[in-house]
Design brief:
The protein is α+β, with helices and mostly antiparallel strands. It contains three helices and two strands. Helix 2 packs across helix 3.
């Protein structure tokens, strides 16, 4: 997730989910992978690895 968002220079939560899934080798994002990636984003936001900036998710410099 961090690598994806850094390469994207941030993005919407949906863009981050889709691109991360693609980077992990998934051609489609079904309910399970989407749910897990949204949960991952929520944890990373809470932990401070990611932050919201103008409705975009960006990686922090931690």
């Amino acid at each position: 997730m961090l690598t994806t968002l850094r390469a994207m220079f941030g993005g919407s939560q949906e863009d981050a989910v889709v691109q991360t899934a693609r980077n992990l080798g998934y051609n489609r994002t079904g309910g399970t992978i989407t749910r897990i990636l949204h949960q991952t984003i929520a944890r990373m936001l809470k932990r401070g690895d990611l932050r919201n900036s103008f409705e975009m998710i960006v990686a922090t410099d931690n």
